Amino acid sequence: MLRERLLGLPRRYKRMLQVITDVFLVWAALWLAFVVRLGTDDLVYPFRAHAWLFFTAPLIAIPLFIRFGMYRAVMRYLGNDALIAIWKAVTISALVLSLVVYWNRTVTEAVPRSLVLNYWWLSLLMVGGLRLAMRQYFMGDWYGAVQAVPFFNKQNDGLTKVAVYGAGSAGNQLVAALRLGRAMRPVAFIDDDDQIVNRVIAGLRVFKPKHIQQMIDETGAQEILLAIPSASRARRREILGLLEPYPLHVRSVPGFIDLANGRVRVDDIQEVDIADLLGRDPVAPRKELLEHCIRGQAVMVTGAGGSIGSELCRQILACGPLVLILFEHCEFNLYRIHQELERRIKRESLAVQLVPILGSVRSVERLLDVMHSWKVATVYHAAAYKHVPIVEHNVSEGVLNNVLGTLNTAQASIQAGVQNFVLISTDKAVRPTNVMGGTKRLAEMILQALSQETAPVLFGDKSGVHHVNKTRFTMVRFGNVLGSSGSVIPLFREQIRRGGPVTVTHPAITRYFMTIPEAAQLVIQAGSMGRGGDVFVLDMGQPVKILELAQRMIHLSGLSVRSESAPHGDIAIEFSGLRPGEKLYEELLIGGEVSATDHPMIMRANEEFLTWDAFKNVLASLLKAVETGDYGRVRMLLRETVNGYNPDGEIVDLVHLQRRLEP
Fold it and tell me: Are residues 374 and 427 in the same domain?
């Protein structure tokens, strides 16, 4: 096609073609200026008496066009700045031409005084108009140029019809990008501003939110794209609640910060952030708390490739550490987070040494070697097995990773003189019904016991040597994080994409939720507030019913829920039953004693624990039971040690069950 051939020309050929075209346009404008002034009865022939004028006009105009950058603008993306440049260049060229005409009054054929005025507006019309027409031609979007023309026959072109919520700058950029990409057809704006309601912007009518049904009926919109990147989470939640009853798939442009940082474009459309449905507006972090244990120090994150660990690394990187050690046992996860942070360090020119270390928290020698080598000052211990059913089926691995791994990391920190140690814990450690929660509570109790010792004899140290304890141990407990591996959110999205059914374990099940970035920020801040042995609890807001979450996700995908009362719905919800070790609801506090801190989202819990000497006996018995495969003994020790541990079923460890089948 001609369009592809023109677009494929080298840049210098394109500029030459524009210059030649503009010369002819200047001649045409000048000739038409004579016609407008003198009429057709006395036509002017360019190469007779006024030849000097037709020679002079392009000599004046073309250099000015070049000076004002008219040949640098990309025709497909011609915007307001380019149009202003055209106006300036044409206006100045007309003024200069008028001076030339005035100075050259000696010619035999007089030049009409109104000629220059006619030449000016005709040049604007022809030079600017041709460029606007070519922009539409190269964009392939004549439709967008005639949207506001009354009675225009808008034929169906097969593209998805979308309405854009937000008629501000982001909304207008999104409409322009959609028209250029030709993957969707913008058909309307929705906006709360009464000043622009019922007006036409970029060829699209602006509807009020209360007239969404009218908008659907008139335009046939199938999706709504939220173009409100700077809106608060509370406002977005309010808008999503308004849109939920309508049969529209709701999606969103990226957030304001991502747009400002250049990480994404306005047309990088994504599914609605579930945090807008569930979360509150996050409390701004306190810089002094974020940087207290990090700036200018060597920081180590265990489990650095996991959901929480990787976000901790991202947040820590922004706080100015001297060294950031990524300690991870999964090679792929370590590679992924290391590559991401390396790119960021280069992009932002950060003075941080990034150290990727493959290793397991089960190896105390590896931990101690790393801590000594880089003189680690702060450890964030995020390495843990966290999936309740998986750990329930693999009891020994859960104990060894969550309990022994925490013990090894804590004791290595004491030996290496680490100043700050922060354990990432979970609400499942409170009155647990599963092995994962029980092991995480034991991990908390290890740190609580060590915090009371100024010079403990470490577990497994047969020499009886006392090690001076200079480490300040802190635990931070919170609920589910949105988007983590194994979270229900990506699972529900995938099930909806496949056409259902969406599986929920129980109609009454509830969970606490928080975004990963908010949780990581609060973990870092809480770690700076600890005095030693503190158990901090994050304010998770109100618990969320998982059934209602599934229903809202289905509705915001533009689909309906299939049920007995609505047998013709799109997506069914099925109840699969509680999995081994799963609770209907989670708690954040074992006892009722909680005190406020300086941060409104962080509370300090006061909970009982064992002395270090007593706890070492429990650890010895627990590890011996794991070594011998005595899972009944493991369960009994958890029941005796962990307050509120109450398993609600049989032992379902897969090796244990297989052994029972053997003759």
Answer: yes
